[in-house]
Write a structure and sequence with these properties.
about 500 residues; alpha+beta; five-stranded mixed β-sheet; 19 helices; about 45% helix; binds zinc ion
């Protein structure tokens, strides 16, 4: 998942602030910065983000560890009250999901467009991301950046992110500002000014973001290479953040066409969670979103696949400032809706969530071959990636790190996780998911992820149970299938020899 803050070209401060508040970006920032102490938390967060889980506990959670002495007994399931939501579709095709929760006088309004970097036109990588920025520019009735005034100036917040599969806009406001936000989201869907001025200014911002996040960061090139070095054919191969040469080659007509093609009510999901009166909310949604016309052109269909990888491959990537060499390995993962998804999330957490995770204990503490190591189950709508990576310790060669990393990852296929390991990571994942949905923002995000990424809002009420039911045998089975029995790509990352001089 690659996500980016929307920033003003003029304000460096703002870049930092948005990076810190950006939910999905935190994941990416962790991946890119590779802060050893935070890597585990990032992975928990990643897993929680990819597997939406139910909203509120029916009762205080039981201590899972108590049940782990008998490894053969059925796993205990923390019983969770379901998220009660209403779902409907307007005549123009807009999907609407609402969750009433009066625990605080705030409300989150989110619009998830079913367009991501997978939909970028050929030779125009970065278009979906560019629109994430464009949507904060002027509309017929809003000045540029007025979204900040409508949210931040009343004590709320707004943000946006782009992934391979979606572009999402998230607002939180005191609930007496709900009507204004609904109007404003409808306004920027229909009346955005896609003109030369807005296009060029935001293109410059995106290019600068690329320089900062990919080129200036010591390991930015490595993380940017995960997808591009791995996929053979799937459009996931393209970097979500974009390429400068593609952005430079774009003309305004390309941008206008992309907007018309993807920004339409029947290609979006509106989620409202928090403090509202249901009848009043329905009336406002009908009033502001109802009149938006459904375009006559058919909805673009996304259809792509990735062939099975015929052989193991390697890729060499270098950077001008690489303090310590690093290695990454990727394997193809099944779609996020796969029945194997939960076991892969658990496997990733056993390997890499927190100080006591296997990779950290083995590679960093015992063998001292790496300064940090991680494993992500990056599950997407289409074929995702399992990604193992490690940064060498001083004096250790990439070959040392690579061998140790592969040995520890494959050990999970041959040595089952202990009952204690399973209980620990389930508690981590469930706690993280539960905490994130204590706010209208987290609640809305969880149900949007289920509705849009998993194509079924109801999964918000089953995914956490699925995660908790994963057994040690399930973990071994998926590691055998997707890692031991599959082809991999190894990315070797080190200092550019020319730059070293
Ligand atoms: Zn961005």
């Amino acid at each position: 998942m690659t996500t980016h803050p929307r920033v003003s070209a003029l304000s460096g401060q703002r870049i930092i602030r948005r990076m810190h508040m950006h939910r999905a970006l935190i994941i990416e920032a962790m991946k890119r910065n590779d802060v050893a102490r935070a890597a585990g938390a990032a992975l928990v967060f990643l897993a929680a983000a990819a597997v939406p889980v139910p909203g509120a506990w029916a009762a205080a959670p039981k201590v899972a560890a108590k049940t782990t002495t008998k490894a053969t007994s059925a796993p205990s399931i923390l019983k969770v009250a379901p998220v009660v939501y209403r779902e409907r579709r307007l005549a123009n095709g807009l999907q609407v999901i609402t969750v009433e929760n009066r625990s605080s006088p705030t409300v989150s309004v989110q619009v998830w467009y079913h367009v991501g970097s997978r939909d970028d036109p050929t030779g125009r990588s970065g278009f979906a991301h560019l629109f994430e920025h464009m949507m904060f520019k002027s509309t017929v009735n809003l000045r540029a950046e007025q979204f900040d005034r409508l949210t931040e100036d009343v004590g709320g917040a707004n943000n946006a992110f782009t992934t391979e599969d979606v572009t999402a806009y998230e607002d939180v406001v005191p609930s007496n500002h709900l009507e204004t936000l609904l109007w404003a989201e409808a306004e920027r869907l229909m009346n955005l000014k896609v003109d030369e001025g807005n296009f060029k200014s935001e293109r410059a911002v995106v290019e600068e973001e690329y320089r900062q996040r990919v080129l200036a960061s010591p390991y930015g090139r490595l993380f940017n290479a995960f997808s591009s070095a791995s996929y053979l054919e799937h459009p996931y191969k393209r970097p979500t953040i974009g390429r400068i040469e593609d952005l430079e080659a774009a003309a305004l007509s390309d941008v206008v066409a992309f907007h018309a093609r993807h920004y339409r009510p029947d290609n979006a999901t509106l989620v409202v969670a928090g403090d509202f009166d249901p009848k009043q909310l329905d009336a406002w949604i009908d009033k502001y979103f109802g009149p938006l016309p459904k375009p006559a052109a058919p909805l673009p269909r996304f259809d792509a696949s990735e062939p099975a990888w015929p052989t193991d491959r390697t890729a060499q990537v270098t950077g001008p400032q690489v303090p310590l060499p690093a290695v990454a390995m990727t394997w193809l993962a099944p779609p996020v809706t796969s029945a194997d998804g939960p076991a892969l999330q658990i496997a990733a957490a056993v390997l890499a969530a927190g100080e006591s995770s296997r990779l950290n204990q083995s590679l960093v503490y015992r063998q001292r071959v790496a300064t940090q190591a991680g494993f992500n189950a990056d599950l997407r709508v289409g074929p995702g990636l399992l990604i193992a990576y490690a940064i060498a310790a001083g004096g250790k060669s990439p070959a040392d790190v690579s061998a140790a990393l592969l040995a520890e990852v494959t050990r999970l296929a041959t040595t089952p996780p202990s009952a204690a390991e399973l209980a620990k990571v389930k508690t981590q994942l469930v706690t993280q998911a539960f905490m994130s949905r204590q706010t209208p923002l987290g609640l809305a995000s969880a149900i949007a992820e289920a509705a849009v990424l998993e194509s079924d809002a109801a999964r918000v009420n089953t995914d956490l149970d699925d995660l908790q039911r994963v057994s040690a045998a399930d973990v071994q089975r998926v590691m055998r299938r997707y890692v031991l029995g599959a082809r991999k790509v190894t990315i070797d990352y080190r200092q550019d020899e020319v730059a070293k001089k």
